Amino acid sequence: MERRVLVVCFIVGFLGILASVLGFAAEAKRIKGSQVQFSAPGICTYPRSPALGLGLTASVALMIAQAIINVAAGCICCKRNRHPPKSSWTVALVCFIFSWFTFGIAFLLLLTGAALNDQHGHGSMYFGNYCYVVKPGVFAGGALLSLASATLGILYYVTLSSVKSHDPNHGIAMSQPQFQPPSAQPVFVPEDTYIRQQYP
Q1: Which residues cross the membrane (predicted)?
Q2: pTM of the prediction?
Q3: Which residue has the higher pLDDT, 18 or 176?
């Protein structure tokens, strides 16, 4: 495997793990219902929580990882005709689609959880006698999908790179030789034929 491929996979893998770890940390630090107090009728008091910063950092790390893997791999539609093996193309396409699918959901979960945890001080009640808090599993779901998105992106990139490196026509110039190879067996002309041609 080329050094460039290894570097890209390492960076994207690191960012994916970082986003996942930060997502689980935000899940642990999110505002719980037991931490919210009723300071007055219709008013909820929320404590400060680091879940906002953790969720935002996780979403940024995930976005950078997705951008790196897609820039490094290039346009998948442009490479369809260059890499004829159907099995490799199918694997790359499936990984590409599910990578973007998991990325979109994970990004929305992390951002939504971070925005909803940006509650501190006094706020209005949410529907009657209940204070609003983020449900358990929002950040954890975003963390798991972040890891899945990075893994699928790496598989997509490695599949395209391996097909390119094993392409028999890759890096070979297709042109006609400028010089004809010498004949394998010399042709001898009888001496009398040569003399008759020179002196009829």
Answers
A1: 52-77, 89-116, 136-158
A2: 0.71
A3: 18
